[in-house]
Structure formats: structure tokens, C-alpha cells
Amino acid sequence: MSLLAPGHRTCSGCGPAIAIRNILEATGDDIIIANATGCLEVTTTPYPETSWKVPWVHCLFENAAAVASGIESAMKAIGNTKTKVIALGGDGGMLDIGFQCVSGALERGHKISVICYDNEAYMNTGVQRSGSTPYGASTTTSPPGKMSIGNDTFKKDVVAIAAAHHIPYVATASIAYPADLKAKVKKALELQPSFLQIHSPCPVGWGFDSSKTIEIAKLAVDSGAWNLFEIENNQVKNIFKPKETKPVAEYLKTQKRFKHLKPEDIAKIQSWIDDKKKQLVCNIP
Amino acid sequence: MKSVITGSRAVAEAVRCSSPKVIASYPITPQTHITEELAQMVASGDLRAEYVKVESEFGAISCVIGSSAAGVRSFTASSSQGLALMHEPLFAASGMRLPIVMAVANRALSAPINIWNDLQDSISERDTGWIQLYCETNQEAFDTTVQAFSVSENKEVLLPSMVCLDGFYLTHTVEPVDIPKTEEISNFVGEYKPEHAYLDSKRPMTQGSFAYPEYYMQFRKQQETAIQASKEVIRKEDKRFGKEFGRSYPLVEKVEGGTDCILTVGSLVGNARIVAEKEKMSLIKLKCLRPFPADELIKAVDNVERIIVIEKDTSIGLGSGVIASELRSAFYNTSDKPDIYNFIAGLGGRDVTVSDVKSMVARVRSGKADHVEWWM
Fold first, then answer.
1. In CATH, what number is assigned to the domain containing residue A167?
2. Helix (H, G, I), strand (E, B), or coil: what is residue A124?
3. pTM check: above 0.80
4. Between 20 and 30 A from B74 (CA), which of A131, A189, B58, B153?
5. Do A47 and B215 touch (CB under 8 A)?
6. A217 touches chain B (CB under 8 A)
7. Residue B201 and residue A53: Cβ atoms within 8 Å?
8. Cβ contacts (< 8 Å) between B56 and chain A: which residues?
């Protein structure tokens, strides 16, 4: 039985909900979750109900990792070495507004796992651009127009920044590859402090039919818009190679957020992806 | 045993004796000595606690929110800009009913940047749902810190407390402080055993749910009920402390002396006492700002005709000091209310000397004073 009870209020086809269900299948129930404010919080804990069958504590938008560091310190103080502490949040909570707390907690070496479900924009407030929004994407604060391509920056490489803290384990995962995702969650709990970023498509924010979530998540990986890999002890390893690499255009055309892009924009994204692939083999200095 | 120590040291000693399990604080003048003393105590093994070297005050309060939610006694300390940086999590701490204790070394806020004392930092956080206790002396800083743990952790209360002590005037000034034996204090405070909501994987619970409009107000009202109930708990704990250690601090202390009265807060009470005695005036020391002891104040001014309220804070645009404004509303529905003269003084560390206080009194008595004046 899932540790995330059904009946929560996420949208149909919600990528983050699939991510969380898979995370909890891997963690088991001896955990404590510090959850940043975001879609996940408001949809799973409407008082007096809750979907969480594990201990869960509300955090602000930006302090989940610091709260988790306090929980871990308390566990240490009472001699509880078994319960695993997880800071959970979206891309806003973990790599933008909450990044200071993430960096502080990783740098201090707390035995926690920071897990980010990345749906590539501030979805809870209605699809505004985040540091994790891909280049060209239309959001409500990066709308395309005569003077705008849409989001004019490439996705923030938070995994590299996390790895620069020289923590034991950093990885990326995708909800399209649940076995891989769960194995990485298990590893993240073993090798703390750890950082895991999970690509989690959002039908509402990205503009696709809610039956297509997994398909689109898989296309992201197959096209290289999202790469699956691990960084263990500063070594990049297990870079996932899809059987057949697809052009990014195939991924982009499935979503309304990219529908305004011109061929030259798509070419720019493709070349960013190609460069990224080359960079991936490097280890963390 | 009496030691001649700073207010910062007094707070740190009180924390050591109260044995919190997690401490997280970030250096800021004039609070820094508190966190340094605690780091030293942990390093030397005199205090067995997790001392978390956080990256900011925002991280500090967030960290102790986590540890307190996990059910262990937790302490932090801050001041001024640091306290302001904690503003958002302060609401989360009180809303989730976490009995955190924080020492606030009172200091002015920027701009202009200024590191010296006034009360603007904690006064500006008066709506965050924290108990606020102010200290006149280093001894009181020690005693209040100890009592704050007992008050906050009382199950009728379960709210966080700020123990406020004036930056430099107390934090950096040495005074004789009686520090009882560690066992006596730890017996007084006892062990913290959370009974209801805390994070434990054996009894999973959701803490701090999302509340729709039909529930949100209930939570807020419960906080109000709890902080009102804390008055009785503060009194009881103070009485118990008095019985044990011979020192006691009422919510509102009144020294009878005449129909004119000086009312103030914190270390300035010392100078006010001297003037009140010389000038045959009464003195009111406001120990507790949240919960606001309105009934106690109304009682205290029963035979008072004029009150001179001296305070080191303001609310820009209100046209008054905050404490005088709260007094006016407390007295609004009473008959025979005293005339209130409000002096906003000592902002950004300007000394308010005995002779300043005397001059304020003379000004009021000569009939020249306005009802609100900035003592420049």
C-alpha cells in the first residue's frame, strides 16, 4: 500500500505526484519529510486530511533544507541513527528561493537527502518562470511576444552546483524510469548528504494532455532535454544512453509552452543539448 | 554562586543549565557573545547539544523549527537585522506551536545602519505570536531565560518565547549574577517531553497542514487563547522560581511612590527607578509585552494621574511610541484614565541618562511637554 494515500488534490496526470509515490516506495516508512510550500504541500495536506502516512512537516517556500537539518540534528541528539530525513520541494523551493538553505545544509554535511521534483516553473502560483524553466518556454512571466522569445535563459545546472559541495551522492532521475528513480532514492538515503533532482512534467503548466505525462517525461530523456546520471564521490557515472536519441524538436512539439518557437530557436536548443552531452563526461574538479 | 558576568554570558549560562538538545544561531552584534559562549560550552563538553553552524539567521530559526518539531528542546539567539530576517519563520514557529526559546539582544534597524541599542527589532515582531519578555538586569536575563523554557513548553502554552535584553547595556556590561547549581536549574526546567505533535516515524503525523478559510481562523484563535493562558503560566512559573531561588519578576511591576508615574521597559527601568524615587513618583516596569498585560496595567494605574512612558522604539507614521499606543488602547474603556506623556528616546543607542529622565519629568510637570515627544 502506498505511503501517499489516494484522494489528494493534485491535477490528473501530475508528474510530481508520480514522483512522490515512487520516492515513498523506495524509502519505506522510517523517514521524516520536511516539505517546502508548493503544489505538493497544498494538494496533499488540506486540514483535517492528509495523504502522508509518514511523518511530515510543513516548511516555508524557502527553508525545507534548513528545517531538515534541524530535524537531523534532533535525531542525532536523541541517538536515532535509523530514521532518514528528507527535504522535499519543487524547483522553486529547492533551486531558487530555497537554494541558500540547500547549500547551507549540504555544506554542513547533515545526513539528509534533498529531493527536488522539477516541474520547470512555479506551478502552484500559476506557471511562472523559475531558474529551472528551459530556454524558450512560455510561462506567465516569460510570455513570448514581438520582443520576447519566451524564457530567455537556459535551465540552471543545480546538479553541478550541488556536486560542487563535494557531497557523497548527487543524481538526476525521471518519472519515466521508475526503477532507476527508486534505486537512486535508495542510494540517496544511504549516501547522505545527497541531492536528487527528478524531472516531473506538469500537464497544466507545460500544456499537454494529462494522459501523456510519462510519454513526455520519456521523450525528455530520449532527446537529451533531460539527462539521467549519477555523481558519486565527485565522479560522474552511469550516464543513461537512450536506445535511439531523438531530436529535441520531437519533445518540444508535444507541449504548448514551446509552440511559438521558430526553427532557429529549436536549433539553438538542440545545440545547447549537444554541448551539454559533451560536458557531462567531465568529473567535478 | 555569584559571578560578575555580561548579560550574554548570563543567557549562555542559563541555556547551559537548561540543556537544550539543539542550538542554531548566527553571529550578529550585539548578540554574538551569546552564540560564541554556547559554541565554547559545547566544544568543551560543558553542554551536550548539537550546535549547528548555520549560514544565516533565516537558517538558524528554520533549523530550530525542525528540531523543535522533532520534539527536542531548542534554542536560538539573534538581534536587529537578523531578527528581521527571521520574520517569516517566526510566524511558522508560533503557528506550529513550537516551544523554541530565543534570546534577542535588542538593537536598532538599518537604515542608517547602526549597531547600538533600541527596541525596534523585537517591537517590530510583536505580531508574530511569540511571547516577549524583557529584562532589566543580567540577573533577570539569566532567570528569564530559564523560566522561558518552562513557560513555552507548558502544554497550556506551547508557544515560542523571546527573551529580550538590551544590546550593549546588558549584553556587554558586567554585573554580579547569581548562578544556582546546574542541577537546581535543570530540576526546575525539567526534561522536555512533547506529548502531542512531534516527528516520529513510529507515529506518523502531519504537522502544519494547509488550512482553508473554514479552519485557518480556528488555528489563529487557538494561538490567541494559548498566549492569553500563558499569563497565568508565566505567573506560576515565576512564583515557583521565586520559591526556589528567591527572585521574582511580575508581568507588571509597580513601585508605589506618588500619583505621577514613569513606565518603561528593559534596562532603562534602572534609571527610571532612581528618578522615580527621588521625584516621589511611582514606577511601572513592563516585563512582558506579549501577552500584553492590559488588566494588570489598568490595576497598576488605579491611583496614577500622569504616566510618563519612555520607550526606545516607534512605529513610523503612527505618531507615537508603540508601547504608549498600546497603553492608550488598554485604558480606553476605563474611567479616570491617566494622562499619558510619551517620550521616544534612546534610538540607535543614544544614552538615556538619569538626568534625561529627570528632565522629561520636569518638562511634564512644568506643563510644557506635548503628549508625544522625541527626546533628541
1. 3.40.50.970
2. coil
3. yes
4. A189
5. yes
6. no
7. no
8. 100, 104
Q: In the prediction, which pLDDT does A282 show?
A: 65
Q: Examine residue A285 and state whether it is found in any structural domain, yes or no.
A: no
In tens, the pLDDT along A234-264 reads: 999 999 999 999 999 999 999 999 999 999 9
Each residue of B77-94: pLDDT tens digit? Answer: 999 999 999 999 999 999
Mean pLDDT of A90-104: 98
Q: How far is Cα B7 from Cα B23, in angstroms, rounded to an integer?
A: 18
H-type alpha helices, chain A: 15-27, 39-44, 64-77, 91, 99-108, 158-163, 178-190, 203-206, 213-223, 248-252, 263-279
Q: Which fold has domain B252-374?
A: Rossmann fold (3.40.50)
List the single best residue of A73, A75, A100, A107 to mutate versus B (max B Cβ within 10 A): A73
What is the sign, positive or negative, of the torsion defined by CA atoms of A64, A65, A69, A75?
A: positive
Supply the range of the domain harboring residue A231. 15-279
Residue A173 within a domain: yes
Rounded to whole angstroms, the Cα distance separating B196 from B203 reads: 10
Q: Which residue's C-alpha cell is 549574577? A: B177
Cβ–Cβ gap B63/A73 under 8 Å: yes
Q: How far is CA B198 from CA A152, B21, B97, B215, in A?
A: 44, 15, 11, 21
- Of the residues A44, A56, A67, the best mutation for testing chain B's interface (the one with the most B CB atoms within 10 Å of its CB) is A67
Residues of CATH 3.40.50.970 domain(s) within chain B? 2-245
Contact A58 B208 (CB under 8 A): yes
What pLDDT does B28 receive?
Answer: 98
Looking up cell 534612546, which residue turns up?
B346
Could you give the number of structural domains in chain A?
Answer: 1
From-to residues of CATH 3.40.50.920 in chain B = 252-374
Q: Do B69 and A76 touch (CB under 8 A)?
A: no
CA distance B94 to chain A (A): 13
**A148, part of any domain:** yes
Q: Does A6 contact chain B (CB < 8 Å)?
A: no
Q: What is the CATH number that goes with domain B2-245?
A: 3.40.50.970
Q: For residues A152, A154, A158 and A161, what is the CA-based torsion angle, rounded to 10 degrees?
A: -100
- pLDDT on residue A1: 75
Res B196 pLDDT > 90: no
| Structure confidence at residue A285 (pLDDT) | 63
Whether A59 has its CB under 8 Å from any CB of chain B: the answer is: yes
Residue B134 has phi, psi (to 5 degrees) of -110, 150
Q: Say how many CB pairs under 8 Å bridge A and B.
A: 150
Residue A3 lies in a domain: no
B97-151 pLDDT, tens per residue? 999 999 999 999 999 999 999 999 999 999 999 999 999 999 999 999 999 999 9
